[in-house]
Amino acid sequence: MTAIPSITLNDGVEIPQLGFGVWQVPPADVKVATQIAIEVGYRHIDTAEMYGNEVGVGEAVRESGLDRSEIFVTSKLNNGFHDPAQAMVAFEQSLSDLNIGYLDLFLIHWPMPLNGDFVATWKALEAMKATGKVRSIGVSNFLIHHLERVLAESDTVPSVNQIEVHPYLTQEPLRAFNTEHSIVTEAWSPLASGKIIGDAAISAIADRIGKSVAQVTLRWHLQRGDIIFPKSVTRSRIQENIEIFDFELAEADMLAISALNRDERTGPNPDDIN
Ligand SMILES: NC(=O)c1ccc[n+]([C@@H]2O[C@H](COP(=O)([O-])OP(=O)(O)OC[C@H]3O[C@@H](n4cnc5c(N)ncnc54)[C@H](OP(=O)(O)O)[C@@H]3O)[C@@H](O)[C@H]2O)c1
Questions:
Q1: Is residue 171 left, alpha or beta, with left meaning phi > 0 and alpha meaning psi from -120 to 50?
Q2: What is the atom index within ligand 1 of the atom nearest the CA of 47?
Q3: I need a labelling partner for 262 at 20 to 30 A (CA). Which of 61, 155, 231, 255 fits?
């Protein structure tokens, strides 16, 4: 089975650098997809209350036969629950739906700056961590000016910032800011939600080294040091996406892929979502 490297977060918690994402996996399918992922060697699952599929993820984890400590599970606070009291209720709901005892990582899903105070919400996550029911806390979709407020106005540096990153949106300034502040970048939609698969430049590299476009793209993320969790409901692709630890991209290929950046989001700008 493939050895997946771990990254140590700023609170000492270790997280596998490759995980399995379940956004847009229907609740009826998520248990089987997660079971396939665990069977082929994934040990990190990225879900969210917003995805509506925590129950099935929890079933797959519980029935895996693995010790709970062997699987890293992330969930996220849904957008309508930023008020600190409601955030605690939503956290307990995620714990109850997953039913796996504790969470490894809990994130504020979006900063929602037009709709309340994300620093107050962040302090609610600090209180969640103090309960011992979550090992690590972080944020998602935070821009530099959001992070600056969290860093200035609270006691805890987020362990991760989960943001959209792929070859068409390389996010250099935000990734550099994360690194400067000991915040690990998690790259969501690492395949640009599948759009990258038709890319001619990556395809040429993939053909030359005998790998798929998905494998080359995921390897590019790994060599940049980001955490990734590609999504697939297709067994062969779930398997393909974990087979990225037996080759290395040359520096010239890394640079060529980074040069594809066109600051193109597949999702919304975090300042606009309300
Ligand atoms: N924090 C946030 O706001 C946020 C937002 C978006 C996503 N995320 C996280 O990031 C995860 C991944 O992002 P994502 O789901 O948008 O997209 P992604 O992983 O970038 O791409 C998934 C798409 O690519 C296809 N695909 C996967 N592997 C492939 C392969 N080897 N060859 C060809 N096609 C392949 C999948 O198809 P099939 O499934 O049909 O095989 C699916 O259509 C999510 O599941 C979620 O955990 C977080």
A1: left
A2: 47
A3: 231
Task: Kindly report the protein residue whose alpha carbon is nearest to atom 8 of ligand 1.
Answer: 188
Q: What would the pLDDT profile of 57-90 be if each residue is shown by its tens digit? A: 999 999 999 999 999 999 999 999 999 999 999 9
pLDDT at 261: 98
Closest ligand 1 atom to the C-alpha of 241? 31
pLDDT in tens, 176-187: 999 999 999 999
For 137, the 3-state DSSP assignment is: strand
Residue whose Cα lies nearest atom 37 of ligand 1: it is 232
pLDDT of residue 1: 54
Ligand 1 site, residue 163, Cβ cutoff 6 A: no
Tell me what pLDDT residue 193 has.
97
As a whole number of angstroms, the distance between CA 154 and CA 255 comes to 37
Distance CA(136)–CA(241), nearest Å, equals 26
DSSP secondary structure letter of residue 175 = H
Q: What is the mean pLDDT of residues 154-160?
A: 98
Known active-site residue 51? yes
DSSP-assigned beta bridge partners for residue 76: 107
Q: Which residue has the tokens 């999504």?
A: 231
Instruction: Look up tokens 């798929």; give the residue.
Output: 212
pLDDT band at 115 (very low <50, low <70, confident <90, very high): confident
**Cβ 185 vs Cβ 169: under 8 Å:** no
User: Each residue of 203-236: b (16+ CB within 10 Å) or e?
Assistant: eebbeeeebbbbbbbbbbbbebebbbbbbbeeee
